[in-house]
């Protein structure tokens, strides 16, 4: 993952992986390590905060994915929605409290970078909630006694669902609607959308994030 930031009026870019070799989130601590190597040990003062954020991110993703030899989605469970929202709230609180009243140059750089990650997680939340609403209304569930896990059988989208989806998309402006369709239905990347539309990746990401927030209020 490529992250851009400005430090001492100079622009930099760093590339970090989201997960470590153990499959757990390590992006926050990896950022602190790289900035410490590039700009000095003062950044290591934020190692504990970064470690806590990695743990919070892991908790969030554990509500969606199971990590083993393979990476696959947790079977649908209505109760999981509450756990998921609490996990995201914990992450946001940790970030806010960790940098409260700290105006050092190092803190401001890290806060800017970590807020970029927070925006990505918030987008994940929006996608999860839209998907959850679909599953809650249109998936039939059955239990297997030997695993005690819910199995999901996906029916053909009903007329009611298609109508509801169209009505939700109509609440977006033309630009948001077009970009949401490109991103989540056509599967295009932010970069591909930005290149086609002649805008920055940041503009695409911000517009889609705003659209997801609006869609979430309609669920």
TrEMBL record:
One of the protein's GO biological processes: DNA-templated transcription initiation
Coiled coil: none
InterPro entries: RNA_pol_sigma70_r4_t2, RNA_pol_sigma_r3/r4-like, WH-like_DNA-bd_sf
Residues annotated as transmembrane: none
SUPFAM superfamilies attached to this UniProt entry: Sigma3 and sigma4 domains of RNA polymerase sigma factors (SSF88659)
UniProt domain RNA polymerase sigma factor 70 region 4 type: residue ranges: 164-215
Pfam families: Sigma70_r4_2
GO molecular function: DNA binding; sigma factor activity
Top-level division of the source organism's lineage: Bacteria
The protein's name in its UniProt record: RNA polymerase sigma factor 70 region 4 type 2 domain-containing protein
Naturally occurring in which organism (per UniProt): Anaerotruncus colihominis
């Amino acid at each position: 993952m490529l992250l851009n930031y400005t430090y001492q009026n100079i622009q930099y870019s760093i590339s970090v992986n989201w997960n470590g070799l153990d499959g757990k989130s390590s992006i926050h601590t990896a950022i602190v390590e790289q900035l410490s190597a590039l700009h000095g040990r003062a950044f290591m003062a934020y190692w504990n905060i970064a470690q806590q954020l990695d743990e919070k991110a892991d908790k969030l993703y554990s509500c969606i994915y199971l990590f083993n030899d393979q990476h696959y989605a947790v079977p649908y469970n209505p109760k999981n929605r509450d756990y998921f929202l609490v996990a995201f709230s914990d992450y946001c609180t940790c970030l806010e409290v960790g940098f409260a009243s700290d105006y050092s140059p190092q803190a401001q750089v890290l806060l800017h970078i970590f807020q970029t990650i927070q925006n990505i997680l918030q987008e994940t939340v929006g996608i999860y909630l839209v998907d959850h609403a679909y599953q809650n209304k249109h998936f039939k569930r059955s239990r297997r006694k030997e695993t005690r896990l819910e199995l999901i059988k996906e029916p053909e989208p009903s007329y009611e669902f298609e109508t509801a989806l169209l009505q939700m998309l109509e609440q977006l402006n033309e630009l948001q609607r077009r970009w949401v369709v490109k991103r989540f239905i056509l599967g295009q990347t932010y970069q591909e959308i930005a290149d086609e539309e002649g805008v920055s990746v940041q503009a695409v990401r911000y517009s889609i994030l705003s659209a997801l927030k609006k869609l979430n209020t309609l669920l």
